[in-house]
Amino acid sequence: MPLSDETRALMARVNKRYGAGSVVVASKMPKIPRFPSGALSLDVMLGGGWPGNQWNEIVGTESSGKTTVVHKTIAANQHQNPDFTTFWVAAEAYDRTWASTLGVDVERVLVFETNAMEDAYAEMIRAAESRAVDAIVLDSYPALVADDEAEKDMDQAVMASGARVTGKFFRKVGQATRRSLVTQERPLLCIIVNQFRDAIGGWSPTGATPKTSPGGKAKNYAYYTRLETTRTEWIDEKRPGGTVRVGQVIKLKTLKSKAAAPQQVATLRFYFAPSSTGLLPGEYDLASQLVTQGILHDLIKLDGSWYKYANYQWQGEKKMSAAMQEDIDLQEQLSADVIAAMRRGED
Questions:
Q1: Which structural domain, as residue segments, surrounds residue 316?
Q2: Is 80 helix (H, G, I), strand (E, B) or coil?
Q3: Residues 6 or more apart from 44 whose CB is under 8 A from it?
Q4: C-alpha 180: how far from its chain's center?
Q5: Above 60 in pLDDT, residue 347?
Q6: Strand ranges (DSSP E) for 86-212?
Q7: Mean model confidence pLDDT for the chain
Q8: What is the pLDDT of residue 102?
Q9: In this structure, are residues 25 and 3 in contact, taking their beta carbons and an 8 Å threshold?
Q10: What is the pLDDT of residues 288-315, one digit of tens each?
């Protein structure tokens, strides 16, 4: 339906006052850019990957895989884009050896080491405004210290100072991360790592100690996506002389998503030691994810004992999984087909 003359006049007035592209017809707006996570099941859970030009939180308990998931995300985007550059605010120590093990090209990561909250937020805003990087990561929020707290003695309480500064950051950073509604600008991936704390005095219907994430409530409204990570089990393998722990299962759940269905779950098998299956330290078990998603999206067909996909066929799941693990082109083709099947009907 064409717009009326009155509507066009309204658009023209607003655009004249605030600049071209301030008001556009929604159907003409660029789609939300997506950044791959390096794990197909997580991409599906997120609605096609991390939403760009928005702030995302990944939160969980200690050693649940939060930073690992972020590193794998950076590695996946570097693989896809040879110019992909990250501004990493290291409130905690940045381990470049572990990052490299996870597939990150540390030559394309700018590390700003500080735990001063105001400094960290100021440089994150400037990095977003500069349009000089493709990703901004803060790892992690609980290690930041607000100026009010830093200036006090250890026996002096400072309540909610960090939450106030964080609320101010999200009110100010919106303009920096905003991109044109008319042209396709360089998109930006924004991730903040957080860690659960016990909510003292809180109530839980299950009787378990309720959890909260530091930083106040304002941030929860500001985040476009919030992911919870949990380590559900260890991966152990029997070897001569005993059992060896080679990995862990990371469960992720969307606590909030404005770009896909909420309360979705993805499970990743992550290896931090060599596995008898051939997987190396720093790798996900991508084959199991590909097989599961391929079947769920009706791309892999089962015909008796034969598994069929496109021009490929394998007799038995074991042979199919082995082929998925070894053939990079096959992985990329099936991943693209799964994402396409998931997005079918969006246009």
A1: 286-340
A2: helix
A3: 266, 293, 338, 339, 342
A4: 23
A5: no
A6: 86-90, 109-113, 135-139, 189-195, 197-198, 211-212
A7: 90
A8: 97
A9: yes
A10: 899 889 998 999 998 888 999 988 899 9
Range with top average pLDDT, 16-20, 84-88, 254-258: 84-88
Taking the CA of residue 76 as centre, how many other CA atoms within 13 Å lie in the half-sphere pointing to its CB? 24
Q: Are strands 211-212 and 197-198 parallel, antiparallel or unpaired?
A: antiparallel
Alpha carbons 155 and 264: distance in angstroms, whole number: 43
Average pLDDT over residues 108-134: 96
Residue 21: inside a domain: no
Q: Residue with structure tokens 């100010």?
A: 172
What is the distance between the alpha carbons of residues 53 and 106, in angstroms, rounded to a whole number? 23
Vertex 281, ends 283 and 270: CA angle to 5°? 45
pLDDT band at residue 43 using 50, 70 and 90 as cut-offs = very high
Determine, yes or no, domain membership for 1: no
Residues contacting residue 276 through CB under 8 Å, at least 6 positions apart:
237, 239
C-alpha to C-alpha distance for 300 and 293, rounded to whole angstroms:
9
Q: Are residues 278 and 302 in the same domain?
A: no
Residue 145 and residue 201 in one domain: yes
- pLDDT, tens digit (0-9, with 9 covering 90-100), for 266-289: 999 999 999 988 899 999 999 889
Q: HSE on the CB side for 171, CA within 13 Å?
A: 7
For residue 131, is it within any domain? Answer: yes
Q: What's the structural domain count of the chain?
A: 2
Residue type present at position 238: K
Question: In the listed set 259, 284, 309, which residue is the last one of a domain according to the structure?
Answer: 284
- pLDDT tens-digit readout, 215-247: 888 889 999 999 999 999 999 999 998 999 999
**CA gap 258, 260 in Å, rounded:** 6
Record the pTM.
Answer: 0.90
Q: Please name which of 67, 193, 53 lies closest in space to residue 128, comparing C-alpha atoms.
A: 53
Q: Which of 314, 302, 340 is nearest to 40 (CA)?
A: 340
Asked if residue 47 and residue 190 are part of one domain, the reply reads yes
Q: For the beta carbon of residue 216, count every other beta carbon within 10 angstroms.
A: 16
